[in-house]
Amino acid sequence: MLEFQNVSYQYPSEDFDIIDHLSFAVEPGSFHCIIGISGCGKSTIFRMTNGLLKPKAGTILVEGKSIVGRKHYCGYMPQKDLLFPWRTVGENVALPLEIQGELTRAERRDRAEAALADVGLAGCGSKMPDELSGGMRQRAAFARTMLTGCDLLLLDEPFSALDFLTRISMQEWLLDQWQRHKRTILFITHDVEEALFLSSSVLVVERTPIRELAEIPVPASFPRDRSCLKLPEMVELKEHLIDLLRKQVTP
Greater confidence, 249 or 245? Predict the structure, then answer.
């Protein structure tokens, strides 16, 4: 589904490559979380994947084809929901369809209403974004991402601004959405427990520049609930991942 082949990137203000000949691959329908300390380059991987940044070297493939010159090959959901305050929730969700320009206004409205119902927001299309709670806004943003029609979804810390209980609820909801739709998801997080609960394997940034992502399988099957986090092997893996991250900030 997604493959990096010897990809490098250097920010103009830096004198080194933050991504240095990185190669990795993600299989279709999988759910991977990427963890690493702040500023290590995780979001840079996403920005190159969605075309916001151009690699200094190397090739990025989606479904076996280079992303150069392509559109509509991945959906991207940043940390903030970025719903336009002057548009209704339904109009926000329908934005990818509007940009693609292939459907009538009525068809876009119907698709948006169906997408909102699918994420538990039936009847919210006519509301304005400020009428929704934080969790509801994130669901609307996810519905918008789904309407890109892309099989590859990049979710960049989408729940980090939510309160603890809402965050847990959204994690459970996202797993349900993934198991129903089987899109390929890459999810950036700083929360080790969140990474363990959501993903089939965790991709760890152990150092910067990023030359590799250490892939660590999560020893819990799907479907799963939060009780899996109490399994001895999950507790052991959590401590191992914390130790890996701690080494990056220890002098």
Answer: 245
Tell me which DSSP letter residue 84 carries: -
Q: Which helix (H) or strand (E) holds 241?
A: helix 232-249
- Amino acid 203: pLDDT: 96
Strands (E), the chain: 2-9, 19-26, 31-35, 57-62, 65-66, 75-77, 152-156, 184-188, 201-204, 214-217
Residues paired with 214 in a beta bridge: 204
Under a CB-based contact definition with an 8 Å cutoff, are residues 34 and 41 in contact?
no
Is the CA virtual torsion 24, 30, 36, 39 positive or negative?
positive
Hey, what are 176's tokens?
A: 């349900």
Separation CA 186–CA 246 (nearest Å): 23
Q: What is the per-residue pLDDT across 123-146, written as a single tens digit (0 to 9) for each?
A: 999 999 999 988 888 889 888 988
- Contact (CB, 8 A) for 111 and 97: yes
Dihedral sign computed on CA atoms, order 36, 37, 38, 41: negative
Residue 89: exposed, middle, or buried by beta-carbon count in 10 A (0-12, 13-18, 19+)? buried
